[in-house]
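User: What would this chain look like folded?
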Amino acid sequence: MTNSHRVGVPVEAPPLPGQAPVVAAALAIGILLLGIQLWILTVTLDLFLSGRGGQLWLLAAVSGLIFGGGLGVLWVLRRRPRVRHPLA
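Assistant: Here's the prediction, encoded as structure tokens.
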């Protein structure tokens, strides 16, 4: 007897068709955003050490926006669409 036939055991829904490419695209976007943030960190450190710290707030704001974009991607990936399955 498998778990899907036991009474009272929740059956996990199979992944929706096309979900793997969405996860792969999100992973690629995440890696790209991480690379951009590392580049921003390098530029910010270079500006700070050279004594030109006036532009640091702008770079910090851009980095914060990128972080927010990453959180947005996580939110989109965790959403489960409301699909009504016909009763079998």
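The longest helix spans residues 19-49. If you want, I can go into more detail on any region.
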